[in-house]
Amino acid sequence: MPALAxxxxxxxxxxxxxxxxxxxxxxxxxxxxxxxTTLGLGFLLTGAAAGETGLYITLAETEIELRAVxxxxxxxxxxxxxxEMVPADGLGEDQEQTLLxxxxxxxxxxxxxxxxxxxxxxxTRVVLDSLSELRLLAQSxxxxxRQILALKHFFSTRNCTVLFLDDKSGxxxxxxxxxxxxxxxxxxxxxxxxxxxxRRLHVVKMRGVKYRGGYHDFEIERGxxxxxxxxxxxxxxxxxxxxxxxxxxxxxxxxLGGGLVPGTATLLTxxxxxxxxxxxxxxxxxxxxxxENAAYFLFDERMPTLLTRSASLGMDLExxxxxxxxxxxxxxxxxxxxxxxxxAIRRTVEDHSATLVVVDSLNAxxxxxxxxxxxxxxxxxxxxxxxxxxxxxxxxxxxxxxxxDIRSDVDLSYLSDTVVQLRYFEAHGEVRQAISVIKxxxxxHERTIREFQIGSHGLRLGEPLRQFQGVLTGVPTxxxxxKTLMASQMGTLDSHG
Length: 497
Hints:
Number of helices: 14
Mean pLDDT: 85
Largest sheet: 9 strands, mixed
Low-confidence stretches: 87-97, 100-104, 490-497
CATH topology of the largest domain: Rossmann fold
Shape: elongated
Number of domains: 2
Structural class: alpha/beta
Helix content: 25-40%
CATH superfamily of the largest domain: P-loop containing nucleotide triphosphate hydrolases
CATH class of the largest domain: Alpha Beta
Radius of gyration: 29 Å
Strand order of the largest sheet: 3-2-4-5-1-6-7-8-9
Distance between the termini: 59 Å
């Protein structure tokens, strides 16, 4: 069996299970601006780098425009043959390309000129841009289909791998083209109410290939397309589960029934300012002190704010950023697609060898998703993947409200192995903070509620408080004596998110 034809886009080759079957005809469709030309040029240049001859036939753009597109990506098209079939108006006399006027030439003659050029160049890879010009010349679906079939038969006898680009300018979906092509890749561009446009692709069909279906996000960057294959947890091997690791606090370890277990996801929930981020940073610093690598994905606040606050609590992250142990990324959910975020998670685990990953917070990540249903599905795949890799995952979920009826944007507690609840409570005229573990799948955890304070050494937990009433109502009230509470210390009761 001949080697697969690489597209030059690693993510797309991954989706296609290695690349395209050579000597076949493929359709790449998408509205203007989705990246078809960039994909086609990258496909030819990848072949040229492997010593294959490439031919770009353009019925829509001039050679000058094509070279300008290539220049924005830092590419040189000198290794390719460009054959333009557009009106010559405005072109200089130094252009040595054959110039034809599709509007003035019969379809049959245009197709014959394409065939003649292919026989002259004898390319291994061909890109035809675009089919909408041939469709306009044909003027009838029957004639158009016959000419495409004639081209397909012609290319099949010339050992060419061909990409037909189509801008979907025809009325409705051109399903007859889908039936003729060996494979179809569709590129989409979506505008949301705010933020950058989202580009995504899906493989409509690919004969004889077990490709990965569904939508995959991609970006057009300098150097071509960057495709983020949809994360499928079952494709990744499972690491052996290790023993529980410490959170950096003996009391918190006891509350969790021994600490954080590798391969599990811990959800920290609570209202704003109660200490969810501080608790997560403390767990992360404990891992960094053990010599492990960690990654922190920050959606909610600015990176300098987190670094300054952590340092003031005796958890300076700068040394770990300097030595490469910690990967700290501030993410704008309006600019990053969910697929790109999933890819960033994969890269940090597989390339950076991170054993602990923090997502702060899921509320902001939710805004990047089309709707809540997709968030839950994507989080399920991501947490399953992290679990199989033996990674400790810490997820922060902010709740609306401070006291009383506290609600969340989305319920992810059933996806998590451990749920830690942080709450405010009132006692003797003061607002204090309490922590409890709602569930854990890996060990017997404490059922008690402990008070905690945030001071110059991070999170400090007190003894279990047993004089609580109404915990499940969302408004816990403390009925015990003041001596059972932690002593107030200057600066310790400042609320930190």
